[in-house]
Structure formats: C-alpha cells, structure tokens
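User: Hello, can you help with two protein structures?

Assistant: Certainly.
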Amino acid sequence: MSKTPAHKTTHHSSKKKCSTAEIVGQGQLLFIEIPYDEMSARVTVLPPDSVNDPFVTVDDLLIAMASHNVVFGVDNRALAEISAKIAQNAASKSLTEMVEADLAFGIPAVKSRDAQVEYFYKDEEPAESEGLPMDEEGQINYRAGRKIDNVKKGDLLIRKTPAVNGTPGKTVTGKIVPAPPGKDIVLGIGKGVVIYPENPDEYYADTDGQVVIKGGLITVQPIFEVRGDVDLKIGNINFFGTVIVHGDVKDNFKIYAGQDLIVRGVVEGAELKVDGNLTISGGVAGNDKAHITCKGNALIKYIRNTRIEVDGNLNVKQSILHSTVNCDHTITVGGAKGMIVGGQVIARREITAATFGSSFGTATEIIVGHQIDLREQILTAEIKLKEVAKNLDKTRKALIHLNSLHARNGALPADKQELYKWLSRALVKLTADSKLLTVKKTELEVKQRVFLEEKPVPRVNCLHKIYPGVKVTINRAYTVYSDEQKYCSLIDYEGEVRVSTLKTRTKADESLKK
C-alpha cells in the first residue's frame, strides 16, 4: 500500500484504488483508507518508533477524517472505541499496540427491478434431458408434433409486473449513488386479445385459438393453417380453433380441432376429432385405420374403409364403401352415381343414396331410427352409474372407518396407511367417473327427447337401385332384400319395412340447403 502525507491524496489507476491520509512524525503513523467506490472508510493507527516521538491523538484522527471528507455513515460507536484506544495508547506510551478498525460505511444503491412477464398459457417446459416425447410404450413419438399454445376465450394469457425504480445510495464522502431505472417491457395488443379493465397489465383471450407473440404484439389466432401435408414435418395437431390443411393427412396422424376442420386433400388412416363442422375435399381412404368423430355437420367427397361418427348431417358427394358410419341426423350420398356399398351405415333420421349394395351381393347394412343405439347407450350409462355409485359408497364407508381408527388410536399401522392412500385415490377417480357418466347420460337423454319431440319418420330413399343382399332396419323392423328395388322410399309401417313412393325432396335435402 502506498502512503502519502496527511495533506495529500493519491489516486491509483487500478479498480481497487483507495485514498490514504497520513500523520507524519518520526514515522508514518495514521492512515485512512477509502476504496474506489467510497463505500467505506478504514482507519489504521501505528505506534511511534520510540516513546520520545509524538503519539497520534484523537484530534489527529478527526483532522484526517475531515481532510478525506468522511462525512457520512460514520459508526459513532466504532469512532468512540477507536478514540479511546488512541488515547489509552498515548497515555501508556505503548510501542506495540496498533489500532485498526472500520470507521464508516456508505449505503449502496438498491437496484431497480426490471418489468416481468408471466405467461399463463404456457405449460412447464420439459427438461432438456428428457429429449424427444415418448408414447405410452416408451418409444420415441416422432408424430407428436410441435406444441401449440392453445387458449379458450376468457383465459388469462399474460400478467405484466411493471418496472420498479431502485433507491439511490450514498458514499462515505456524501456523494449520491444513482440507481439506474428498471427496464420496461412494451406489449402491443393484437386481434383476439383484450385488457382486463381493472388491471391494464393483465391480457386475456377474446377468442379460442393459439397465442402468437411477434415483435411484442400479442394475438390469438383462431385458425391453424398447414400449407402442405400433415406428416412427420408437422406431426399431430391439437388446436382449440379451426384447422385448415391444404394437403393430405397421412397414415397414423391425429388432428383435434376445437372448431372446424377443413382438409383440401385426402385423409388416409388418420384419427380426426372435430368439435365443429368437417370438410374433406379429397375424401377419406381409411385403410381400415381411419377413425373420425365430428360434432357438427360433415361434407366429404367419399368415404372408404373408415369408421366415422357425425352428430349433425353427413353429406357425401360420391360414395360410402366398406365403412362403419353413425350419424345423428341425415346421411345423403349425392349425385346420380352416389352409392353405399358394404359395411354398416346408421342414421337416426334419414339415409338417401342412388345405389345401395352391388351386383356382387356385397353385405351392406342400412339402419335408420331413433332407438337403434340411443336407448342402449342410455341403459348402459345407467348401469355404469349404478356400479360407480355402489363403489363410491363402499369407498366412503371404508375411509370413514379408517378415519375413526386413526382418531381412536392416534395413528394407523403401515398397511392401513397404504390402504388409506389407495382408497383416497380411488375416491377421486370414482367421483370423476360419476360426473363424466352423468354428463354423457344427460347428453343422450337430450338427444332422445329432441328426436321424439320432432317426431320424424325414419326413411331410406333410393334414387336408383337397391341390390339383393342389402339389409335394411327401420326402428325395430328389418328386412333383407332378395330382389332389386328401384326408385323408392322405405319406411316402417306397423312393424314392417314397406316400400313407398320415392320422396324427391327429402328432409336431408332441406337440411343441407340451410
């Protein structure tokens, strides 16, 4: 450490610079060290070389503090102790006692806090070590696809915490240490996003869709668009809004659309679940693997080797071949050559096609009528609900018994503790199952009630020909045709399938025009 006389100050170029004050007598006896940031002051007092030389006094200390402008943060208790030691050493003429102590401390600036943003629509990101997603069998799932930030209308998207400015500090020499202001984050509001009126720093979704933040602009886009095929480059799609695929949907891929789904190309052996309407311009070549469920109306070019369920109306432009089709309303296979060949086709209201079956006697089953599966499904739901209610009652009673044991004995044995955990988990699952079954049963009952209130006449409309081998069921009546039938409508008349005059304008036609 360099040392200078009391009336001089040395400034070093290093970041660890300090200024030092001295009292000069027979030797250098008093030093006040102030570091470069001036956030502290430390005093060192040395004894003289002999008893005949002057000792440092308290006045010398005060003069040195004044010369170095130590005016803030002085520890008065430490100053008193130092002064007492200096006076004691001078009085006893001690040549071995050294005084060294911290004298003053500055107050550092409190850092400002930058603005923060919480993203409520994002799931917790997986750890990097987890690697690629796995399927249920522990194999790498290359079809998983990229994660879409799905939100529902009204969901909280982002909460911003504004920047908070810090508090200035002060050095031992009285200088103010400023605190740089916190950095703000500017977020713009795009389509599909609204601000909560009572808190302008909370952003909510104004529509179903995916959250996109680009250039600080937050939007919720209601459409997810694929410019090509749904294949390994895209992966499975799970989207709360409308999905548009401009190419094909390849084998073994899945699409969930919370609203509508439009496929411009062909759907192969894929799984589609649509909460809105479905349009497949290129048709479905299902390869006995495709499974499609649609809660709205469906418009499809053709259906081949596919299992499909439609809650609304199904309009097929060309043909239904070797497929299992279940529709809550009407099925229309349009065009002069529209045909249904092979498989089982069910509609609760009406089925219309030009041709049913084929000249080869292909087994084809046509079913219309409200009771075909609604009653069975309601009955099945009721049976399951009773079973769940019975198990719930047993589980609750077992838990009550274990709770009473615990209260009586103060603790449960290890085996009873494991049983208690198992029963608690079972109670949660059974409660959830009960709620789901109740909702399902209610939905089925509403469907049945609406159907009965409208009192439709189930009907099969043949615009050209029904081939031998076709089985037709209308309500509880059924028949298997051994002869061709042409240009006719089939209805249930007093428990028998009867041939009637063809209805050229059907309910299916009317519903599709709406």
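That covers the first. Now for the second protein you mentioned:
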Amino acid sequence: MLAHAAAVGAKVIAIGDPGQLPSVQAGGWLRAISERLGSARLTEVMRQRDPQERLALAGLHDGNPRRWIEWATQAGRVDVVTDGRDALEQAVAEWAGGVDAHGLRESVLIARNNDTRNALNELARDQRRGAGVLGDERSYGAVRVAVGDRVICRNNERDLDVDNGTRGAVRQIHDAGIVIETDAHLVRELPAGYVAEHVEHAYALTGHGMQGGTVEQATVVASPHELSRSWSYTALSRARGQTRLLVRDTIDAASERDEFGPSARGDQADPMAVLARVGRRMLERDDEDLAIDQLPTPGSADDPPLTQTPIVGPPQEHAADRVEPPLAPAPRRPLTEMRKELERLRAQLQAPPIRELSQLDELDALTRTLTERRDLLRSELDRLPAPPGRRFGRGEDPHLVDRTRLSARARRRRGPARACTHATRNARPPSRRRGGNPRQARRAHPRHHESPARIHRASQRARRTRRRRTTSMDPRGVWRTTAAAIGRSALGQRRADHRPLPHRIRNPQ
C-alpha cells in the first residue's frame, strides 16, 4: 500500500497507539516510523470519567505501572483470588450486576487466553439461562446459539455486510441460520455455515477482541504472568465507568514459576507480593523491535565483523611497531588557556548591540503606530460628505470644522512618522544618538523650530506689501491680497503651535 501511494503521489496517514496491543502477525512499523520521523500525539485520555483513573492509566501506558497499582488498591479496583474457579464465578457475578445496571451491551468480561474466555462465556450463559432471558436454542456445528445470546462475528464477509468484530444479539434462529441485531441497531442474517465457523459468544472477549471498544463496565480476569504492558493497558482502559481486575494467583501460575525457581507455597499468597509480581510483569513489552532495528549498526563497537575478525598486517610492520617506541600522548591544553578561550567566547556573545537593536525595534513600533493613526484619520476624512456647490459666489460646507481638524491632525502625524522611519533606517552610533542631531531634527520637523520673531517679521512684510499695493489695485484685489497674507501668517503660527485653524479664509468670487 505504501509503495502504491508513493507511486501515485498520495498521502498516507497512519493512526494508532504504540502503547496498545500490536498486530497478531509481523508489526511494529508504526513505532519505528514515529521514532524516526516524529508524530502528532494525543496526550489526554477522554474515555474514563474519573480524572484520577486517567492519570493512573497514563502512567501504565508510559511504563510506570506502580501508579496504577497504587490507585487501584486504594480505590478497591483490584482483588487477588487464589482459587481459579472462585475468580471466574466472582467475575461473572460482577458482570451480571453490570448488566442489570447498564444493559447487556455495556458490560463485558475480558480474559487473556481463549480457555479462560470460553469458561467465562459458559458461566455467563448459565447465569442468563437461569434468569430466564435465553429462548430456543439450536446447534450449528460445534456452536450452540439461543435466542437472546450475545455473539460476535470473527470474519469479514462483504456479502453479509458484517466485519470481524461485529457484535450483536440473536433475535431469531432457524435451520438455515440466525438473525442478529447489531450494536448499531442493524439487522443481519447469517447463514448456518458462517455461524458454525465464524460466530462466537461475546459475553467474554480477549484483549485483542475488545481493543477499540468502549463499554460502561469491564471485569478483567488474568494471572500475574498474563498482565504484560500492552495487554494490561488495553484491557484496563475499555470502560468509561468502573473497571475491575481479578488476579488469579492459582497453583498453575505458581508451577510456571517453579520451573525457574521453586519456592515454598502456603495455602494463600500475600496479596502485596502478588501485586509486586504484577507490577514487574507490566513492565515487559508485548511487541518487539523491527529486525532492522535489532541489527547492530555497521562500524559500531558491537559489530561482529569488527569485534570477531582480527586485523592482521604484514610481519615487517609488526616488527617495526615493536622496535619503535610508542608515541607520546598529545599534550592537553592548560586550564588557564581554556578559561581565556571561554572568556573570549563570552565577550563575543555579549558584543552584539542589544540595546541599540531594542531602540530600533521601539522606533519601528512607533512608526507603525503613527502610520496607522494617520491612515485612520485619512479614512475618517474620506468618509465626510463632499462640500456642496458654490452659490452666489460663496460656498457653504457644514463639515468645514471637522474637515479642517482631521486634515491638520493627519499632517501632524506625517512628520513624526517620517522622522521615526528615517531614524530607523539610518541608525547613528550610540554617542551621536544620545546627544541628538539638531540639523537632522530640523529637517524632520521644519515647522517646529520656526521662532516667533521670524513669523512676526513675515507678517510685517505682508502688511507693508499690502499698503504699497493699495493705491494700484481695485478694492476687490486689495481684499484678496490682504486676506491671503494674513492667512499665511496665521497658518504658519498655527502649524508651529500644532493647533488646527478654527476656520478657513476664503477669497470672494
């Protein structure tokens, strides 16, 4: 599939959990790819309602089973049972209580091996038959099915529209097969041949069969040696509500340990010692690394061709090595030189003008702020309606005051913004910037440094010009010239003080 996707240029998204059970056949590629290329990871479990249980299961997933064992012991979620039959009967009794409280679909028994699963299914069917829930029963090969049984399909069959893992309840039986209602409330008819080969009871499931499922209550039955890391996390994380673990510390499990180290065994083992064995077993992985990851790296210290094959050269070279004295080891650098080198590197690290760079950043920020304000003022000015046409030689603009105010403020914003931009692009040395550059400041703000005396002299020149031209011009021209001169003088004074004109002087038409 990956080769075909690469050939056509398609994208493959792999979704999985390396902490759960691996493939039945060869697998482990998802973990290997994640370690090499990285992956997006979900870190918060949302299935369990109890936040403390979430934290305990997270520790079990990450290889810290002690956290889960301590939590389960305090919460009463784990029991150690020495008799195997008692453990099965206790598990079925707890499962029956879950069925009464949450329904048949929301309560499940989980076992490690098929023998334990079959025994739990038989006890569960006896309990259901004793409660009067099961109806007519019929045999299909080695499988006996009754109306009301809970079953699971174990083979993908496209013609029947069922998949491996489809669970449901039997609603009708006949010679040709059975009719089931799946958990998705779909009706499926299964022929007798499919029932005999691929249908099993689903009161109890294995960890692989329950992987990916979610129920309200789960009861797990296992021996200490069966509670490996991935299987434990998968089985103990299936329920939203209550999950119970019954540890079967039976004689059969003890006989397996006697093969490695026989030990005296009393009538009842210490529960804490049993849980200690469970914790050690939960550290062992179910999967293995890929074969390519298990091979030694070529050229490494554990490479067999390098460690087992002796390197033999010409005899004369070996004789020369024996005659010549060994070379003296290279002298180490004195500690003082290393300290000097360290100080030099530190000085280089501190050399960049951090303070000057921060000042440039402040100037950039100020420039952007002033530019944004200027654009805002211009937009407000553009939103004002256009002035009406002139009538009888005189125009009337109801928004004259707002238009004049916004225009003046926009012009005032332009000067400082340009000055900040110029200062940012042409940064001076620190000594020159501290004292300031008056000539540059005057160029950036020419109207800020005009003295009142200069403005007064300009006003006097305008008045003298008006008096000289009074005799040679008509009254209308005299009024226009005088108004323009006074307006220029007042405009210069207003610009110097950064205050907008309250009105505008117009020439009569």
